[in-house]
Design goal:
nine-stranded mixed sheet; 6 helices; alpha/beta; 254 residues; single chain
Amino acid sequence: MRCAHASFILERLKSAPQTNEVRRSGALLPGFLTISSLFHKSLVLSEVGASAGLNLQWDRYDYRFGDRPWALLPSPVLIAPEWRGAKLPLDVPIHVASRAGCDLNPLDPANEDDAQRLLSYLWADQQDRLERTRFALTITAANRQTVDRADAVDWLEQRLQEIHEDQVHVIYHTIAWQYLPASSKAKGEALIAAAGERTTEKSPLARLQMEADDQKHNGAALTLQIWPSGEKHLIGRADFHGRWVEWIGWPGLH
């Protein structure tokens, strides 16, 4: 028996699911606070695999880390991961100077069809995720955030040519880099390393990653690398959907 909606379903299956899990911002924020602590500069954000751009809006959400709140402004989006490990310094001044993202199939948060597509990938009984995502879509649309339709490596090549005086350029991605073809990953790594070698103390570079590693049974690895020093550390681990964060922190930074 033929499904009445077969053509619709087959069309949807032509592109990969995009959950754009907002709770991953609960793992990203500690990384951005660390970067701000290390450089004391405004942030220029470049997110690879940004989908609808919801995790480009991380500074416009409300957080609870245990009994400790963090918010720049009141927000209807509340992110409260189970917090494990070291205490996170939350009193660090932080400012986003600009933000941009890319995706092979970007979704427009202001487009009703795209918003419904994103919501359709969430389980219908997970009301907290649905509500959080709806609010995040509203915030992203209100700030007119759009994501560039582009190949990750081609886009990065262009972004890394820009010089940001007295700002730190932050490349970041959550559960996205691992899906790139091996050749693209190799080229991307080389581009980032070459850009790192060109940095100065006035225009540093940082790369914040939340990706699976060889311990993926224990969530995703949170790693941070900074230039011009090239120093890199595992700063924590997190549930793939952001339900918990196990914080290690940057060595010597309290």
